[in-house]
Amino acid sequence: MKQQEQWSSKLGFIYATAGTAIGLGAIWKFPYVAGTSGGGAFFFLFILFTALIGLPLLIGEFLLGRHTGKDAISTYKQLAPKTAWVSTGWIGVITCFIVLSFYSVVGGWSLLYLFHSITGQLSGLTVEQYGERFGEIIANPVPTLGAQLLFIVFTILVVSKGVQKGIERASKIMMPALFILLIIIAIRSLTLEGAMEGVRFLLLPDVSNISSETVLFALGQAFFALSLGVSIMVTYSSYVPKTQSLPLSAASIGIMNIFVALLSGLIIFPGVFTFGLEPSEGPPLIFVVLPAIFEQMVFGEIFLIAFFILFVFAALTSAFSMLEIIVATRVKKDITKRPKVSWIVGLLIFILGIPACLSYGALADVQIFGRTFFDNADYLVSNILMPFGALLISIFIPLKMSKTTLFEELKQGSSIGSKLFMVWYVLLKYVTPLAIIVVFLDAIGMFR
Question: Does residue 209 sit within a domain?
Fold first, then answer.
């Protein structure tokens, strides 16, 4: 039996992990959720939750994975054998299945928009016409399903190559390109005439905009953006050598995640306010608003193509991790099974995602709880499964691993002292679960 791979370098691990953490969570989802949830107030809560809840949990998932060196399900089996705690790993696997089923739909949209932008079909239209064009594109079942399948196939091809030759190699190319393109486009967006109104919307919190729903969405976004609560980071860190500093890696990823969310907001909201558009457009925000913004820029077509190249990169880096956690549970340490398992799992995810793909076309009128298949999948993952998974993990770590074991594992590759360790331990054991429970209870009206 061939042994499990490891990341070839510290930078490779950070790039790959940052890729899953950043991805569409920061670029596609953050702007539209911020736009519908209060702008600056939402952004402030997102940063707060990322720092006080997200990062401690991220370090905790890193500790679990590196300590056991196993996939998500096997990790919980080892640390809590013959108990129900193994369900925590299964929740993560199932959640990734659901996420990638609708995430691949957005990935397919990005491929279609890249094609349309390259061929000049997204130029010379009004804002209303861009909205109509978006509706026409996503309502057509053949190209949308084809693009979704193509996106899944790209993901399968990379994951089937393994950790170093597939995920790490692709992430080393994609992540630097993503940062460079984001910075260039953000600088251009900030030169627009009404850019400052968009900046104020993003950066100046208005407490009157904070509601229980805003808090819940901000918490869900912090988990979604860092891929927490689904044990992705448990799986990725199982490939990490003991010489890697887990706190430093987590801090780097958290900072990059906030920075990319900030850049995404600075790309979109200045243009939104400059051209009198609505920040509350929802999931189609990027696809409807950005072409209209770039249409009115000098060299707008070039920037539009560059943005959707970036968008495809972001989607793929996140998709790699979601497929990897599922594949890893089946492959375990026998990497010879990886190609076959990758194809089987990937195609099953595509089939599961067909209703979400048709949610804006053939199945647009089919709704459950007042939402389409796509919206239900998004809500279930972001606002229920991820926070619930995070709650279980935050309880599991201090319950099943002693302080001494955690401290020794955390010291491997880092110079963290006992005081900083205790700060992390208190945040993970008390603050994280309490905050998640309070937000959940408030969201269902327990405090009203």
Answer: yes
